[in-house]
Task: inverse folding
């Protein structure tokens, strides 16, 4: 049985490993973290990703650990409703729902679907060597693991990408994001409802993710590499958003400061080269995007499935990897570019521009829903 070595047990690496295993590969996933951690906040998986997970046999377990998204609302920072969209009906029409889930739950369900014996933790890849028949991954811990293919699913700051394409800094989007999960029960955000509220140079969002938990995030236009003020992230957030739509500061209040994450939002300009012989990039290492369309992990899931499909259909591993690279570029590049532009609009600071944006969101709601339907209706 040919062996595939996957670097990174994130959402992309685990999905690729499941798909490869199902198409006849012996899979080894090598992950830097010492164990499967209960980290991260929430995540939205749209119909396109849920359909892939169903095809891989992981859909039922993932959906059972998630909360459905039936209604999506866009509001002004004070809470004025601008659009309400029916995602329940859209999911029914497209054949699978949109869901909100805790990242740790998603990763645990994917690890179960793969079989945890295929994942080795505490392995930090530092380089790879390749030849005509395969590739070796070299690890800081001293291991040398060989496979007929090597998949670099090691995230936006990927070591494999760095070696394959040469070093290049990610592109800073101009805003930072805080994320958290609160145990709250607010009438404004019942299970099934997701809310985005837009302000000047900031946006916030909330989404129940099951088990009484509500995922929230906030962004703010700031220079890169900022750190928490002396009072911590919570104090910073309450200062920035304390007078916003009340459900949001309530969620921040209910989140322990130590559990609040802060990351500068980064992506990379799309490039067409993701492979080097029998080595391929996947997920954020290949096609990182800003989170404004909520599609980064969804695209990693699509790519994992398509990678295995292309390898199965091709005569050689090189041909399969090259077909994968070609078939995924246009869709992922479109999403990265569109998400970047949406991010610029959400980050408007000028009051007139913000006023106009809020009006246009209300007026163009139907058009944007048709566009969303096209985006998430794609089946790989
Ligand atoms: C604020 C925010 C909100 C988001 N919201 C959404 C959303 O709602 N919906 C959505 O679809 N996407 C969302 N995304 C994007 C999503 O998180 C990513 O696209 C997704 O996690 C990419 O998965 P991945 O497996 O490619 O990479 P990662 O999740 O980054 O996983 C990479 C893995 O590789 C490991 N690793 C790294 N280097 C090495 C090494 N040298 N050796 C071994 N292992 C290594 C890491 O420890 C990690 O486990 C969001 C992103 C952000 C920042």
Result:
């Amino acid at each position: 049985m040919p062996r595939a070595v996957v670097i990174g047990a994130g959402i992309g690496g685990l999905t690729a490993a499941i798909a490869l295993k199902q198409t006849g590969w012996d899979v080894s996933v090598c992950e830097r973290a010492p164990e499967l951690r209960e980290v991260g906040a929430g995540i939205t998986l749209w119909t396109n990703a849920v359909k892939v997970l169903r095809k891989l046999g992981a859909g039922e377990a993932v959906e059972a650990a998630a909360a459905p998204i039936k209604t999506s609302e866009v509001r002004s920072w004070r809470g004025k409703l601008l659009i309400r969209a029916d995602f329940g009906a859209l999911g029914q029409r497209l054949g699978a729902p949109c869901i909100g889930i805790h990242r740790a739950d998603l990763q645990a369900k994917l690890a179960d679907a793969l079989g945890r014996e295929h994942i080795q933790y505490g392995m930090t890849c530092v380089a790879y060597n390749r030849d005509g028949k395969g590739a070796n991954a070299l690890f800081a811990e001293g291991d040398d693991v060989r496979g007929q293919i090597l998949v670099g699913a090691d995230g936006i700051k990927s070591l494999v990408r760095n070696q394959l394409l040469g070093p290049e800094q990610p592109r800073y989007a101009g805003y930072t994001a805080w994320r958290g999960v609160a145990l709250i029960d607010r009438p404004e955000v019942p299970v099934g409802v997701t809310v985005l509220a837009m302000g000047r140079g900031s946006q916030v969002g909330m989404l129940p993710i099951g088990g009484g938990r509500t995922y929230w995030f906030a962004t703010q236009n700031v220079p890169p590499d900022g750190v928490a003020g002396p009072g911590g992230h919570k104090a910073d957030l309450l200062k920035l958003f304390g007078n916003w739509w009340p459900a949001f500061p309530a969620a921040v209040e209910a989140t322990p400061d130590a559990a609040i994450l802060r990351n500068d939002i980064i992506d990379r300009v799309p490039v067409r080269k993701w492979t080097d012989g029998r080595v391929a990039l996947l997920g954020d290492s290949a096609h990182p995007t800003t989170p404004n369309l909520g599609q980064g992990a969804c695209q990693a899931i699509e790519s994992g499935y398509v990678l295995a499909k292309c390898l199965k259909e091709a005569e050689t591993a090189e041909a399969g990897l090259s077909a994968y690279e070609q078939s995924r570029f246009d869709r992922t590049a479109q999403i990265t570019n569109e998400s970047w532009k949406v991010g610029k609009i959400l980050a408007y600071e000028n009051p007139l521009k913000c006023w106009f944006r809020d009006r246009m969101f209300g007026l163009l709601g139907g058009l944007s829903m048709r566009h969303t339907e096209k985006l998430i209706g794609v089946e790989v």
Summary: The pocket of flavin-adenine dinucleotide is lined by residues 7-13, 30-33, 43-44, 123-125, 153-155, 159, 177, 179, 217, 263, 283-284, 291, 294-298, 300 (CB under 6 Å). Residues 49 and 302 are 6 Å apart (CA to CA). The chain has a mean pLDDT of 97. Residues 3-41+58-66+99-170+267-344 form a domain with the FAD/NAD(P)-binding domain fold (CATH 3.50.50.60).
